[in-house]
Design a protein that fits this description.
Structural class: alpha+beta
Shape: rod-shaped
CATH architecture of the largest domain: Orthogonal Bundle
Helix content: over 70%
CATH topology of the largest domain: Helix Hairpins
CATH class of the largest domain: Mainly Alpha
Strand order of the largest sheet: 2-3-1-4
Largest sheet: 4 strands, antiparallel
Number of domains: 3
Length: 512
């Protein structure tokens, strides 16, 4: 290529006219070679079937299926199960696929080849396609038909296994939750037994028991006060009667002795009455000692009275009877007061116990809330699992009866009428394009290496000098004839090559 040479459209057209054979020959040869090569490629036929997802025939509002996976998620798993090596190998042997390849290839490679020739794709949310590509159109149709049926069978098996696995999982979770619920129930039962009477639900009963005990305590206190007031009256009357008895005694020596014994008896009786008024009961050392003194004084007074020859008047006898009656009444009142105080202590203990249970109720309520919260959580979980298990069993029953969601073929496989591959027209066009590009590259290389001048304009443009004259190459007639014959022979040969390639391409194009 000359430095500074400019390539105008006229120059480029001139180059193409001069080197036309360098474009036509690679184009024709590449097109013919590509056409011949594509002719040797085996025809591959493709058959396809469309599988639709048929929803369950029972309304989902009545029975809800536990399998809600999308077809995009299920199809890969079903595909891998169907296209396992064992199944593909059995289909290869059953339909006698790839007979030539099996002669020089191991079965694993043949299975891989068949795997690559099987195609699945999602059409929409409720349909997908299955296709198989092979050299025999009838076998291709039969294999595609078998694949469609396998997808239907595997879908049923997949859904059945999934429902069984779901049911087993829910059953195991239900058993575990049941054990947790029973353990929580045992903890609640043990808690109720341990803190019986202190539970929040028993506060009302404890309040009622507290009120009852306080009422009884108050009633007993009133009874004790009334009894003590009555005892005070009786004791005053008794003391008055005893004093009159002493005043009425005779003044003889024997009578004076009887009067002394009587005073001792009155003093002993007064001591006993005082101790009883203080609330002492039999068994207390002070009261027992006072009672012994009283009995001894009574014995001395009785012995003195029996030895005395004094005869009592009827008034003294009546007075003594009244004294004895008052003493018995006072003793009875003392017993009643003592019993009332014992009962009062018993009711006070009951009131204290009820109050303690009432005071402990807030703590027990907090603990019960925690226990019941855990129990409610486990119980809700158990009820939810129980409902899900029942739904899973109903769903499994639907799958067993084949009334749930299923696959159905809506477009069965057909025998293909024309090859699916190779696309010879596209291959031939690509080959011709490659030949054209190769020719253009060849022309560009030749033009780049060409450093000659074609006319005086190129000389002036490159050298910057005017051209005075152009002297042509002088050849003899023999040389001119040889050049002419050589040019004719080359053009004829190249024309034959181009024409032959064109005829080959036309024949192969029309035959396809």
């Amino acid at each position: 290529m000359l430095p500074g040479k400019q390539y105008t459209p006229e120059v480029i057209l001139g180059i193409l006219r001069k080197r036309a054979w360098f474009l036509l020959v690679p184009l024709a040869v590449a097109a013919a070679a590509t056409a011949l090569w594509s002719r040797t490629l085996p025809d591959l036929y493709r058959s396809q079937t469309i599988v639709q997802v048929v929803p369950q025939r029972i309304s989902p509002t009545l029975v809800r299926s536990t399998i809600e996976t999308r077809i995009e998620d299920r199809l890969p798993a079903i595909r891998e199960a169907i296209l396992s090596r064992t199944r593909l190998e059995s289909m290869i042997l059953e339909f006698d696929l790839y007979p030539e390849e099996r002669k020089y290839m191991v079965m694993e490679d043949v299975v891989g080849m068949m795997y690559d020739h099987i195609d699945t794709w999602i059409i929409r949310q409720d349909a997908f396609g299955v296709a198989f590509t092979g050299t025999d159109p009838v076998k291709v149709m039969r294999v595609t038909e078998r694949l469609g049926n396998l997808f239907i069978e595997q879908s049923l098996s997949y859904r059945h296994n999934l429902t069984e696995v779901t049911d087993e999982f829910l059953e195991s979770q239900l058993d575990e939750t049941r054990r947790e619920l029973e353990a929580q129930e045992r903890r609640l039962e043990a808690y109720r037994r341990t803190y019986a009477g202190e539970l929040p639900t028993q506060v009302e009963a404890n309040l009622q028991q507290l009120n009852t005990a306080n009422t009884q305590i108050q009633q007993l206190a009133n009874n004790i006060n009334q009894a003590l007031a009555r005892r005070l009256v009786l004791e005053q009357e008794l003391n008055d009667l005893r004093q009159r008895s002493l005043d009425a005694l005779p003044t003889s020596s024997g009578a004076l002795a009887d009067a002394g014994e009587a005073r001792e008896l009155l003093a002993a009786q007064a001591a006993v009455d005082e101790l009883r008024a203080r609330g002492l009961r039999p068994g207390h050392p002070d009261l027992d000692a006072a009672l012994r003194n009283l009995r001894e004084a009574e014995a001395r007074y009785a012995g003195r009275s029996s030895d005395s020859s004094t005869v009592r008047s009827p008034g003294e006898v009546a007075r003594q009877a009244r004294i004895d009656s008052l003493a018995e009444q006072i003793a009875e009142i003392d017993r009643q007061v003592a019993d009332a105080r014992v009962a009062q202590q018993r009711f006070q203990a009951m009131a204290d116990a009820a109050q303690a249970r009432i005071d402990a109720a807030p703590t027990r309520e907090t603990e019960m809330i925690a226990l019941m919260r855990d129990y409610d959580i486990i119980a809700d979980k158990y009820r939810g699992l129980l409902q899900k298990r029942e739904e899973a069993r109903i769903s499994a029953n639907l799958e067993r009866r084949q009334v749930g969601e299923q696959f159905s073929i809506i477009d069965p496989a057909r025998v293909p009428e024309r090859p699916y591959s190779p696309d010879r027209r596209r291959i031939n066009a690509a080959g011709a394009f490659v030949g054209l590009v190769l020719g253009m590259v060849l022309v560009a290389v030749l033009e780049y290496r060409d450093r000659g001048f074609r006319n005086d304009e190129e000389v002036e443009a490159v050298m910057g000098l005017p051209v005075l004259a152009v002297i042509p190459i002088m050849r003899s007639e023999a040389e001119q004839r040889r050049r002419l014959w050589r040019r004719v022979a080359v053009n004829a040969g190249l024309s034959v090559v181009v024409a032959g390639c064109a005829l080959v391409c036309a024949y192969l194009y029309l035959s396809t």
